[in-house]
Amino acid sequence: MTPTLVRQHLPRAGAAPHVDRGTRARDWAEIQERMLVPLYEAVHERLEVGSGTRVLGLGCGSGLALLMAASRGATVTGIDAESPERVHLARERLAPEGWDSRGSHGRVEMRVIDGSPGDVAGAVGAGGSAGAAGTSGEPSFNLVTAFEPIGCVAGDSEGLAELLAEATPLAGRGTPVVLVGWGPPERCTTSSVLRVATKLADPLRTPGSWRPALRDDLEEVAQRAGLRPDGSGRVACPFGYADVDSAVRGLLSTGLFDAAVAATDQAQVDKEVAEALHPYRRGDGTVWMPNVFRYLIARTP
Q: Going by DSSP bridges, is the β-strand pair 143-150/54-58 parallel, antiparallel, or unpaired?
């Protein structure tokens, strides 16, 4: 199988000081993260993720994409330096006693690190996992995931190129790198709700406020990271919730409203997000918002 590289979950703006990070992480894992399952499945299918795949998940969050790759037989390693709370949940989710890690592919290896690609290099170099560099002559990873969509918060791609550059030495030459971004605003009904974040957080004074995704966001990151684009795709990822309260909790768990919470207060943000959701509320009380996400496959030099 061709070596492979990809990253993980929805973008976080700088978290407001009074945000309950533990609750937000739990809401992300229990409500919001599953909205991206069609995206994870599409990428895994296109890249033929299986028993020969060694995945490095950048920004792995609470680990759902890693779990899905592991269920296909892949060896998975996740890293996340931004949310220790999500990393804790990922470790719980990927613990061998938490699911049948043997399945039809035999036992697979899973690890989650609260840190950077440099920390992964140290762990792999210590000889912890199968396929580590130097043990078989192969690179440590042939799939690196960056599944956290960019292009929705001003400056949210800053640092991603550096993160990719740090991870690249752990993968082989020509390894695919898959970056993920929000689709065009006209294809994402959630955009109308996310505009609440911009309205409440003065974009000229508050960093991390929402802005519409741009056509070349992913290509620009790939170029800065020295990667060569090699294909792309779009995936429908509708956001569906049991009720408005669940929708508010799920959307706030993305971190896209943290700047608004910092600029105003939690109660006002909750109220205005709930009001913005009314057009998408169905007769049975559920909330349904069609969206499209885009992924770019690039390759390491």
A: parallel
Tokens 């609440």 map to which residue?
Answer: 196
Q: Are 286 and 240 in contact (CB under 8 A)?
A: yes
Round the average pLDDT of the chain to a whole number and report it: 83
Q: What residues have CB less than 8 Å from 294, skipping those under 6 apart?
A: 180, 181, 182, 183, 218, 232, 233, 234, 235
Name the band, by pLDDT with cuts 50, 70 and 90, for residue 9: very low
Among 3.30.530.20, 2.40.240.50, 3.30.300.20, 3.40.50.150, name the CATH number for the domain at 5-188+211-241+289-299: 3.40.50.150
Q: Say how far residue 134 (Cα) sits from the centre of its chain.
A: 29
d(CA 245, CA 36): 20
Tokens 């569906």 correspond to what residue? 240
Q: Which whole number is the average pLDDT over 111-118?
A: 88
Provide the residue ranges of all domains of the chain, joining segments of one domain with +.
Answer: 5-188+211-241+289-299
Burial class (CB in 10 A: 0-12, 13-18, 19+), 49: buried
pTM score, whole prediction: 0.85
CB 146 within 8 A of CB 6: yes
Ranges 25-34, 197-206, 222-231, most confident = 25-34
Q: What's the one-letter identity of residue 245?
A: D
